[in-house]
Design goal:
single chain, mainly beta, four-stranded antiparallel beta sheet
Length: 124
């Protein structure tokens, strides 16, 4: 069992930055793909970013490329999402997710473990 706890959300203005963190516990962090998803009010949850443990290779949704950066620290069992140039449309609950494997995973159904989410609100 893997437990994930997100932190770092908040209320910011357009153009500001936030850094989300996800602390994993319960099993060896290496071996797990880590991802970030988000869900805006009235919308389905969508993929934001993911990072492989084997080579730290990241993948991003098109709408965050160049603005968001995902990183992981296997020694501390944490994964971060640095969000720059935030826009009002980035407002959502952001979820950390984990899945055991080595391939890049961008589909919600591929992930086995989820955090409780952290709210990000960007005002215009």
């Amino acid at each position: 069992q893997v437990r994930l706890v997100e932190s770092g959300g908040g209320l910011v203005e357009a153009g500001d930055s936030l850094r989300l963190s996800c602390q994993a516990s319960g099993r060896t962090f290496s071996g797990y793909i880590m991802g970030w998803f988000r869900q805006a009010p009235g919308k389905e949850r969508e993929f934001v970013a993911t990072i492989r443990w084997i080579d730290n290779n990241p993948s991003y949704a098109d709408f965050v490329k160049g603005r968001f950066t995902i990183s992981r620290d296997n020694a501390k069992n944490t994964v971060h999402l640095q969000m720059n140039s935030l826009k009002p449309e980035d407002t959502a609950v952001y979820y950390c997710a984990a899945a055991y494997g080595i391939r890049t995973m961008t589909v919600e159904e591929d992930y086995n473990y989820w955090g409780q989410g952290t709210q990000v609100t960007v005002s215009s």
